[in-house]
Amino acid sequence: MVKTIEYLDGVVRMIDQTRLPNETVFVDCKTIEDVGNAIRTMIIRGAPAIGVAAAMGISLGANSINATGYDAFFAQLAKQCDALGQARPTAVNLKWAIDRMLTVTKAHNHLPVAELKQRLKQEAMAIYHEDIATNEKMGGFGQSLIADGNTILTHCNAGALATAGFGTALGVVRAAVNAGKNVRVLANETRPFLQGARLTAWELKEDNIPVKLITDNMCGHFMRKQEIDVVVVGADRIAANGDVANKIGTYMVAVMARQHGIPFYVAAPISTLDLTLASGDDIPIEERSADEVVTLNKHRIAPEGVEAAHPAFDITPNEFVTAIITEQGIARPPYNESLKALAGKA
Ligand SMILES: CSC[C@@H](O)[C@@H](O)C(=O)COP(=O)(O)O
User: Fold this and answer.
1) Ligand 1 atom nearest to CA at 233
2) Are 124 and 163 found together in one domain?
3) Which range is the signal sequence, renumbered to this chain (predicted)?
4) Which one of 3, 53, 63, 136 is most buried, counting C-beta atoms within 10 A?
């Protein structure tokens, strides 16, 4: 499988997810601003991948600073981080990665700036490697919830492309396959950005994992026909009470799953928890350009001048979430207690 992101000498290289599956093109980011732009335009997307990209971008930013004294260095780095933090609002992993990089900077304020820059590069690489290990652990816990022969519905792309590798929701699928279970995936296409059609279908096909693409309005039909055993999705931010922000359309899937008695699982690393927020009402929902709604793969499908809305995420209330799979174990309701306990172990 191709790498979603890598940090080469002075360059953060990403596969351009806006051009998949038709073209496999890589984008080289040479500055923190390039990385911010790649996050904003969704060249790289998915909560954990955004966090990894941000950390690598901050390392690039640090390397570009000429100041030799710590205070001036930190002031410039913090300013760059403020700008990077504006790239996308919903996935908390962006803020998480920025906070972690700034904390490491402060903890090493005694180092000469040249060494501090090296330390920040090490931290970015640690975040990258930890993300893959985290997903593998999460997969291990998650696959215990999947039975041989299951058909798994997923929404958006919470796979290798949305992380440093292996994936969260698709990590559960991969771990089930690795455990010898025969599973297949139904992938919602995920209008309007088509992460399911373009990315989930692509990466599962690359790995020879059986996948069938459906449009977003088909999942109720397949649930009623008892052709879906379990739903597994990722998350962009999870509030203390277990309310989940994920790609627009997730809420609809969760309500349908409840109606049909199908378990609805969310797979997300501890870095996606935002225990400072009491409920999903406090999670900022990104409003993206209406152009992405009135066009389909850059082809206009709606009349000129029509109004369109584009909330890019929705909130699934905790009552619809059967369990939350993390790298520290599986949280069950009531989430206020179970999530706190798992976060405490991290
Ligand atoms: C492991 S990724 C989990 C979520 O980030 C994913 O499901 C999602 O909603 C991504 O949204 P995107 O707008 O493509 O960044």
Assistant:
1) 7
2) no
3) none
4) 53
Residue 4 beta carbon below 6 angstroms from any ligand 1 atom? no
Domain end point (choices 100, 135, 170): 135
235 pocket-lining for ligand 1 (C-beta < 6 Å): yes
Together in a domain, 150 and 105 = no
| Residue 58 in tokens | 């901050």
Judge if the beta carbon of residue 89 lies within 6 A of ligand 1.
no
pTM of the complete model beyond 0.90: yes
CA torsion, ordered 135, 167, 254, 306, to nearest 10 deg: 140
Mean pLDDT over residues 259-277, rounded? 98
Backbone φ/ψ region at 24: left (φ over 0), alpha (ψ -120 to 50), beta: beta
64/167 same-domain check: no
pLDDT in tens, 14-47: 999 999 999 999 999 999 999 999 999 999 999 9
The total of structural domains in the chain comes to: 2
Which of 173, 190, 247, 288 best tests ligand 1's pocket when mutated (most atoms within 8 Å of CB)? Answer: 247
Q: Is-catalytic flag, 82?
A: no
Rounded CA-CA distance 243/252 in Å is 14
Q: What is the DSSP secondary-structure string of 26-72?
A: EEEE-SHHHHHHHHHTTSS-SHHHHHHHHHHHHHHHHHT----SHHH
Question: Is 297 in a helix, a strand, or coil?
Answer: coil
Can you say whether the dihedral through the CA atoms of 211, 215, 221, 223 is positive or negative? Answer: positive
Return phi, psi of residue 308, to 5°: -145, 145
User: Domain containing 59 — which CATH number?
Assistant: 1.20.120.420
Out of 236, 243, 274, 314, the active site residue is: 236
CB count, 10 Å around CB of 123? 21
Q: Which pLDDT value is given to residue 2?
A: 81
How far is Cα 337 from Cα 345, in angstroms, rounded to an integer? 13
Same domain, 202 and 280: yes
Range(s) of the domain holding residue 40: 5-135
